[in-house]
Each structure stands twice: as C-alpha cells, then as structure tokens.
Amino acid sequence: MAVKGRGAAQRLLVTAVVGAGTFTVSSVAAEERLHMRIAGSMQQWAVAAGQNINTGDGSDIDTAPLDQKHNSEIRFLGEADLAHAITIGLRVELEANTDDQQIGESFLFLEQAAAGRFEIGDTDNVAVSMQVSAPDGGISINDGDLLGIEAFVTPEGYEEGNTLIDSTALQLGDDTSGKFNYYTPRIAGLQFGASYIPRFEDGGSNNNSITRVDGQGPVSDGVALAINYTREFGDIEIEAYAGYLFGDSPSSAGSRAIHGAGAGLLVSLNDFEIGGSFAWSRGDVRDDFSLNGRSFDIGIAYEIERWRVGLTYLRGINEGSRADPADQRLDQLILSGTYELDAGVNLVAGFFYYDADGEKDLVADDEGVRSNCGFGFATALEIRF
C-alpha cells in the first residue's frame, strides 16, 4: 500500500529514490540533458470538528461544522548518470495550493554507491530526513496532516514546525533552509548523516551573505547529525534512529544557542507495526521566544491487502513566549484507516481528538484564542502520480 509508518524506509534515501516508482533512472550520455519526470500527490479533504474555543475576553468564535481542506504538491525530478558510477539529480517541489508558499524544496544531489550521497540546496536536515517515528493508519499527526490542513484552530503564539509542539522532528526554525547534507552508504544496516546549515530560514530565503548586524540576525552555523539503523531478523524488521541539531543564536540579550535531540524506534512483525519517538529542545529562535520543549509519539498499525488501520498519540510541550509563565501544550489522538482503491488512489478517513492550551497572558483581554479542545472526523481522497 502507499501509506506506511514514517520510518527510515520512507523518509531516507528520502529523497534518494524519491519514492520507488516515482521515476525511472535513465542512462544518458554525458552530453545529454537530465531526463526529467513529474510526480506528486493531491489530497482533497472534508473535515467535521466540534471545537470548544476559549478566548482571552470570553467572546465566541464561530467555526464551520464542515470544512473543505487541501494539501497537494507537484515534484519535478531529474537524474543523469555521469562517469565513475556517479549519479547527479535534482528535485524541485511545488506546493500546489493557493497560499503564499509555492516552493517546498529545491536541491541538487550527487550520489555514488560506494561514497554515499551529497545534497545542496533547500531541503530537510539529516536529523529530520532520517527520523523514525510512530506509524499511523493514513492520517498523520507528527508534523502531519491535522495541523498541516488546519483541521482545528490553534491558540495564539503557536509556531508549528518551529517548535516541538506538534512534532518530534528536529526542525526548530530550520525547516527547509539552504544547507549541505551528506549521507554515508548503509553498511550492516547502519547509516550516518551530517548537515551544515549556514542560516536558519523558514522557506529557504537564504541568498544573503550578511548573517549578523550589531549582534542581531537569524540563527546561524547550524549542525545536524543523525544515525539510522535498519535490520531484518526473520519476520521482524527493526528501524531505529537518533539525531541532534545545533544552531548558534544571535548575541542579543537573552538569546541562547539552540540544542535539540531525538530518537525513535519502529518494529514491524508481518502485518503489524508498533513504534514511537521523542524529542527534547533548548534555546531561542529570538530573544523573546523560547524553544524549551519536549514531545513524544506512540502508535500501532495493521495492514492487510488493500486495508491499513492505525492508532497514534502525540503530546508536545513548548515554553513559548518568555513574557508568559504558562507553557504551550498540544495533545492529539487519531484512529485512522486507508483503503487502496487502485494503484496510487487511496481513500483515507479517521476520528481524532485534540486538546490545545496556549499562553494565558498573551491573550488576557483580547479576542485571541487561549485554548481549544474537541473531537472531529476527517476524510480525504488521495491521488499519487
């Protein structure tokens, strides 16, 4: 089936084979252009949620009982074989949604079986791409679908993707910044990765040589390290991961360097998967917003023929605004399933529960959202090509 737990097999060579079958490797003469392919996916969602929203001033916020959501992307992929068994390739990911972020990833890579893989451009760091986390039944909650499609309203001050509030992935303000990644060949099940991130930028706007002005500026000189292990023991398959991320914060008063660490384990036995992950972080994206936080997820999934079902839970906590003593917290629980209608065509659905607490002083006397909890149902038709 197309939907699997987010283990190393799906997220690493991540981008190496870009999802087996997405494109075929063509042997070309050195003088020929890269052979390009187009791949991608489209998800069109229907979401129904009962939301209990609390605001700072006690005012009511109306939400639609049934909403339409979407999440689509188109990938432009190219590869060519060079001398000495070296492959050169590229990937450009277009966010095919009507919002302000149009390019998700854009990078080049060089790969050789004996030497490993080198990437340069706007993409995930190795601690994200090599991550192993809890399986799901088709709707993800770890840096996943529910917050990605805004299935429910989140409190003021949340910075999803920059903190551990909704994920165990070590992004912490890096996201798809411009960077240099290196992955070793996998030997005896082990693979290592390292990233250097000159500047932490959300969206990859990194074409600027000025990293600091009078002690002010973005997080810089980032380093990510990761190790991934995959091994089969009869009917049992083990996937494990550990990662670390560092970023040097600007020297303005109150700011601290970013440190993040995480680990994950996924065990597969025949048609069953069980696993989980956790992460911890310290530091500041800026001098008034703390990244001190922690998160974990756990899940189980079962797959047979065209069906897959899974149960996943995630909790994330982040300190957030230094001016507010309350921590941010988000709990998510989802029971979801997938039915494969045809090759590349899936129907997904799931029931979810969430409980989101924000910062109290931040919205003390205004209409901002302080907290939100509730239940919901989400379903989508998904096409992959």
TrEMBL record:
One of its GO terms (molecular function) is porin activity. InterPro entries: Gram_neg_porin_domain (IPR033900), Porin_dom_sf (IPR023614). Gene3D superfamilies: Porin (2.40.160.10). Residues 27-358 form the Porin domain. Signal peptide: none annotated. It comes from the Bacteria. GO terms for cellular component: membrane. This is Porin domain-containing protein.
